[in-house]
Every structure is written in structure tokens, then in C-alpha cells.
Input
Amino acid sequence: MVTYVYMIRIYMNKMSDYLRIKEAAAYLGVSRNTLRQWEKAKKIKAYRWPQNNWRGYKKEDLDQVLEQMANSCIYKSNTKKNNG
Output
């Protein structure tokens, strides 16, 4: 019994290191379908749990995507200023 409870605690702690798809989408300001498309296009890594096929996203990975999005917006903004 102690081993089973211990294993559940480890599993729950590991799950808390990840955001679910709904949370990750809100964090990035995109839809859940966009995250699924990005995963399919290998733009972002989704981690799957074999027990329930649950999708999880590491916050560090999401922060990198946010940085890339910000850099892309800055680049587009600067291009418009220089051309217009």
C-alpha cells in the first residue's frame, strides 16, 4: 500500500510540471487546435502519458514559443516601419 501511494505521489508531482492543453493554450493566447497543429508540425513538443493519453506541455517550452512569437512580431513591426 505504501508503495502504491508513493507511486501516485510521484505521478502527480510529475504531472504538475506540465500544463494541460487548455492551460497551455491560454498561456500562449492561442486555441487548443493551434497547439495541436503546432505539435503535428513539430513546432512544439507535447508530452503524452500512456495511461490516459493526456497531453502535457512544459512551461519552458511554452516560454520559448512566446519568445519566438515576440521576436517575430518585433521583426514584422520593424519591417513595416522601415518600408512604410
Q: What stands out?
A: The CA atoms of residues 32 and 55 lie 11 Å apart. Residues 59-83 form the longest helix (25 residues). The chain has one domain: 2-83. The helical segments are 2-16, 21-28, 32-40, 59-83.
